[in-house]
Amino acid sequence: MGDKVKTERIEKTQQDLLEKAKGLPTKPGCYLMKNREGVVIYVGKAKNLRSRVSSYFQSSAKSAKTEVLVGHIRDFEFLRTDTDTEAFVLENNLIKKHSPKYNIRLRDDKSYPYVMVDYNRPFPRLQYVRRVKRGEGKEVFGPFVTGSRISEVLRVLTKSFGLRDCTLREFHSRKEPCILYQMKQCSAPCVAKISAEDYQRSLQLALDFFRGEAESSLEFLRQKMLRLAEEESFEHAAMLRDQIELLEEFQAKALQQNAELELSSPNVDVVAYHQGETEVDMAIYLVRNGLLLGHKNFHLPLIEVEDELDESLLNFLMQYYLNGHDSFPQKLVTPFTKKQNMMLEQGLKEVANIQVVSRSKGLSNLVKLAQDQAREHQRFRMSSEESSYVGLNRLGQLLEMRERPRVLECFDVAVFQGSSPTAAQIVFHEGKALKSAYRHYHLKELPEGNNDFAMMKEMLTRRIQHGDFPDVFIVDGGKGQVSVFQAVLKDLEVDVPVVGLAKAKTESAKGDYKKEISRSEERLIIPGRSNPYFLNKCRSLFKILVSMRDEAHRFSRRLHHKQEGKRVMGSWLDQVPGIGPKTKQQILYSLEHSKEELKEMDAREISELLSIRTEQAKNILAYLNSLN
């Protein structure tokens, strides 16, 4: 379709949408903009739906971002509300549900450690987690300060109180105690060496350490240490003494930090932002259980802001707390107006009862810290060209795009001597990995062996069938790989730009020494451009694209190694007597060892490792030994 015909068609669509918008009510509500596939690409709120939605399709001047958005809109829906506050809450719920491409989504740059106990499992264990999934039967402690050695504390408590540390699969498959039982570091509940009641008492004593009753836990361990010494088990007593010292050090540090931070509420978040020339940075300082955990930083380009800056930031905060947040404050201090804070407080009632205020007694120092952090974070990031927007804007300029690309997809094919070919699809959103969108592809083995081009074509053809295309495709390779990509896209009538990422060619030096290719010599292959673009010219773009390529390599090879291991294993497991199809499938699922490593084990170890009967393990061992 020619550019002129395409433009005329878009203009006709916009006229039709303007007529439709004129029939909207003049009441508050939310609107959902959709593309030609019916996918929601933008969600907004309005005090007056008719006026707001109509403004998108009128010929008045618009921002660059709005012009691009309007060019993709083919239809819209609306939802009426009674008040602005209801529209505010509904908007954020719709953003969370649809994840629209043209709504800015805040990303957490840091998570803090927690301790979790899941009572739904038999003989619960202490678990170190970063992302908490709360639910019935789960008890959570934390978050804890980064660098607090909490993982070490957890390990010490587990061993000191004899709690299980194995996975559920290992727990169920064990036939006799592991070596930790012999070392008196586990009570072996897996083989009923301890009753459920006694185990529960030990678990609760360990948890007292996190419940503000640490002294009772420590005293229990001190008495245990003295008993061991009286029994002349000096080595075990000395080990317990060292563990007690670590726990005492952790507890003393926590008490000191509590004394240094005097707050009216022990759980507080303090928010501040700094508006620069082109971007705005937001900082959130977190206090939990009276301890200053640290801060989180977010940033966004001002060109993305559709409404007033305060309103946009208010939306971002709402997303931050609604989006699976794992630790809520009792009080939230913001730089917004009283009315805006009331809207935010009302919206957050869905997930937590948080008091939202503009000022709070005793927190002026923390407010200043947050303000300084937002300002300094932006200064440092901009001066070091670390902003992802700098890199993405540069990529958009190189490809002569009307807007900054937001979603990038990178692909990599892994194959060894023509066997078990796999491919990986890596997705980055706003310069950050979007792991929920990663995909693996199992590819057909070709009779001619390695054929990267044919396999890439198969992978890309399958990818295109899923729709929801990125703004730019990134391929690991030079002009040849880029040409294959373009050819497949053309056959499938998909209009998405493609670039290749390749290392610069360098000549070998004299002698046996071969000059290594520096990472700074990465180059970008751009169709229609005679010379490649050397990525060392833009540090931010270099960081994004090389990270994508490296991640694609890692992800594709992970599946490839797993598939290749199963293929090779499967070829000789068929020769082992007593191994049926179900057992073989079970072994292939769990095995991560080579034949040579298995030969070094005895039948009992193989039985435990693969969760199979001892007789079957003996058959495997006999077969492996017969290969000599």
Describe the structure in your own words.
The protein is an alpha+beta fold and 628 residues long. It has 5 domains: 3-98, GIY-YIG endonuclease (3-Layer(aba) Sandwich), CATH 3.40.1440.10; 114-260, no CATH class; 268-383, Ribonuclease H-like superfamily/Ribonuclease H (Nucleotidyltransferase, domain 5); 392-507 and 516-546, 2-Layer Sandwich (Nucleotidyltransferase, domain 5), CATH 3.30.420; 574-626, DNA polymerase, domain 1 (Orthogonal Bundle), CATH 1.10.150. 45% of the residues lie in helices and 18% in strands. The protein contains 21 helices and 19 strands. The protein has helices spanning 3-21, 49-56, 64-72, 84-98, 150-160, 168-173, 179-182, 196-208, 214-230, 234-260, 309-322, 338-348, 364-383, 388-398, 452-464, 479-491, 539-573, 581-590, 595-599, 603-610, 614-626; strands spanning 29-34, 40-46, 75-80, 114-118, 127-129, 138-141, 268-275, 279-288, 291-301, 331-333, 355-357, 407-416, 419-429, 432-433, 439-442, 472-476, 498-503, 522-525, 533-534. Strands 12, 13, 14, 15, 16, 17, 18 and 19 form an 8-stranded mixed beta sheet that branches. Strands 9-8-7-10-11 form a 5-stranded mixed beta sheet. Strand 16 (472-476), helix 16 (479-491) and strand 17 (498-503) form a beta-alpha-beta unit. Helix 9 (214-230) runs antiparallel to helix 10 (234-260) and helix 20 packs across helix 21 (614-626). It is globular and about 90 Å long. The termini are far apart. The model is unreliable at 506-520 (pLDDT under 50).
